[in-house]
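Chapter summary example.
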Amino acid sequence: MTTFHDKRAQNDIYKALKSISQMLPSLLEVLQTSVAIKKMAIKNDLANLNFALPLVENSHFKSVLDEYNETEVINFLANIDDLIDEITESIRQNKQYLNVIEELMQH
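The structure predicted for these 107 residues follows.
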């Protein structure tokens, strides 16, 4: 097993990881809340568009809206979901790193 020879460096690494580990769940919560709010806003926008579309005569305008609905919204939510997955994985890995450092600090 590897041991640290520099206690100050060991403590600094531990403190940094501990700090990151404490902040990541808050960031995750903010992102999840953001996604929920954005999904509600998108649903409202789509409901308003669906109400208005029968009144629209311009087929080009309608095709632009359809394209927006299918690509932009899906891409935005997919990007946020990917970020949430990455943060969740970071939380898991940081917990593992903290456990290893705590074990090393005991030796």
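To summarize the output: The longest helix spans residues 59-106.
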